[in-house]
Amino acid sequence: MVTPLLLADRLAHVRAQIDTAAHAAARDPAEITLVAVSKFHPATSVQEAIQAGQRVFGENRVQEAAAKFPALRATHPDIRLHLIGGLQTNKARDAVRLADMIESLDRPALSDALAKAADMEGRMPDLLIEVNTGDEPQKFGVPREQADAFIRASRARFGDRLKGLMCIPPAEQNPVPHFQLLRSMAQVHGLSVLSMGMSADYPQAIAQGATLVRVGTAIFGPRPATA
Ligand SMILES: *Cc1c(COP(=O)(O)O)cnc(C)c1O
Questions:
Q1: Which residues form the domain of 180?
Q2: Hey, whose CA ends up nearest to atom 7 of ligand 1?
Q3: Which residues carry this modification: N6-(pyridoxal phosphate)lysine (predicted)?
Q4: In a domain, 2, yes or no
Q5: Residue 67 CA to ligand 1 centre (angstroms)
């Protein structure tokens, strides 16, 4: 199909695809939250998406989120920000201040930093644990074999703030087995949120139980070359 030219049309198309995928899987589309990934795109594009009814956004760098979102929130207090990128411990305090959800908890040192930041800020975002389902050495995410122990420890530490799991399957592989692995891990631990699926594969992720899909390019178009 031809990609629509206007952001509002691309967004409507993605929403329609989500509905179709949900119905095909006998799921209620209302169970699925679209996270519009606005990284590298200007605040004006985020504003366009807000005008078109989008409310949940994803950014992968704390500094960029800090530059864009406080002003957007001032005019649109109901938008939600998810931080979806690998997080350095020295950014934990800004992350806790800015985010409604951090999707990339992946190691004990980051848990420590987030807990300390939460004490200082007097708030704690919702959390997802990122699992490196492909065990790729260069990637963020807790390695598969450490995931169970890390999920248990995080549950004990953060209680209900820990909502679920996130994964980014290896780019060159069929994502479906990765989605299935993430779903089964979440089931074992009684976690309800499953963040999986990006522009290339969100319908497949929905078929496998995704409750959050993180879609950038299909909404905002290609990212500027500085990416
Ligand atoms: C950039 C990014 C996305 C969105 O990717 P698209 O292919 O542009 O949809 C999703 N998740 C994470 C973690 C990202 O960094």
A1: 7-220
A2: 199
A3: 39
A4: no
A5: 19
So what's the pLDDT on residue 224?
A: 81
**Cα 214 to ligand 1 centroid, rounded to whole Å:** 6
* Chain position carrying tokens 């078929």: 207
- Examine residue 213 and state whether it is found in any structural domain, yes or no: yes
Distance 39 CA to ligand 1 centre (A): 8
Task: Give the mean pLDDT of 146-172.
Answer: 97
| Residue 23's CATH number | 3.20.20.10
Number of domains the chain contains: 1
pLDDT digit string, tens, across residues 107-139: 999 999 999 999 999 999 999 999 999 999 999
pTM, two decimals, is 0.96
Gap between the Cα atoms of 217 and 33, Å rounded: 17
- Strand, coil or helix: 193: strand
Under a CB-based contact definition with an 8 Å cutoff, are residues 187 and 151 in contact? Answer: no
- Whether residue 173 lies inside any domain: the answer is yes
